[in-house]
Amino acid sequence: MAEFVLESLGKTFGGALPVTALEDVNLHVRSGEFVCLLGASGCGKSTLLDILAGLETPSSGSARFDGEPIAGPDPRRGLVFQDPALFPWRTIAQNVAFGPELRGLGRRQRRERAAESLARVGLGGFEDRYPHQLSGGMRQRAGIARALVNNPEVLLMDEPFGAVDHLTRIALQEDLLRLWERERRTIVFVTHDVGEAVFLADRVVLLSPRPGRIHRIFEVAVPRPRVRGQKSLIEVEAEVYQAIHGIAHRPEPSEPAALPSSPSPSPSPAYA
Ligand SMILES: Nc1ncnc2c1ncn2[C@@H]1O[C@H](COP(=O)(O)OP(=O)(O)OP(=O)(O)O)[C@@H](O)[C@H]1O
Ligand SMILES: [Mg+2]
Q1: Which residue has a Cα nearest atom 24 of ligand 1?
Q2: Which string of DSSP letters, residue by residue, matches 92-154?
Q3: In the predicted model, is pLDDT for residue 270 greater than 80?
Q4: Whole-model pTM?
Q5: Residue 255: predicted pLDDT
């Protein structure tokens, strides 16, 4: 089991000008599922992922992992960020072995675990290279290997391929899918790229901004292996774009509603 249940989850950051980043988020991420969180910049994607990781706590509602409230970081949940932030003075294997080293694992075991983890992301043979000797895509793979080294049940990935060129990104997406198909770990993957979300995910969770709420969830019922550009994927993409367009053009709370009022008391038809 490796599932998340979020109920009426809200997050407000305090301070002189409090920011409500998330409001009333209800979501069940099933064990082994690949879920993409999609939304505009600032809509709360990273905040939501940080809550799943245990790096942030909800202000209201609850976030549970396998039935337990998420109380802090946990090796069962591996994290991958946009910037892998590898230590430049350590080899790739030493970077990947950093977590096990902190946990007191012996040198030989650390080395074995790191080598195994690097092989899983296609970096076998690169153990003794330093980060500056690798390409951006390879550094990103090393970041994924570092997350895999603890054999986590879940991968939480925050725009992991945001900083690499388009072709490398495509290669990394395909490698990630292969890894997921082999190991069936639960993956929650943050992106603002509609094509990436639809290509990768079982379900795409579209967040709306100010504050982040779940606007709509799209099932991507397209069997794998998927082929980029195939009609059924493009159709889901078109649906997602339409929904994004709807968010962008929904009336501001101060504006009169553009549609004739319906019997529903809902203030915004977009959320019906
Ligand atoms: N530690 C913090 N303190 C105060 N406000 C914060 C903090 N972290 C995030 N926020 C605010 O919460 C909102 C959501 O931020 P978040 O980083 O989750 O957005 P995002 O969807 O990941 O954006 P991006 O796509 O640009 O990464 C923003 O308004 C941001 O300024
Ligand atoms: Mg973010």
Answers
A1: 41
A2: HHHHHTHHHHHTT--HHHHHHHHHHHHHHTT-TT-TT--GGGS-HHHHHHHHHHHHHTT--SE
A3: no
A4: 0.90
A5: 54
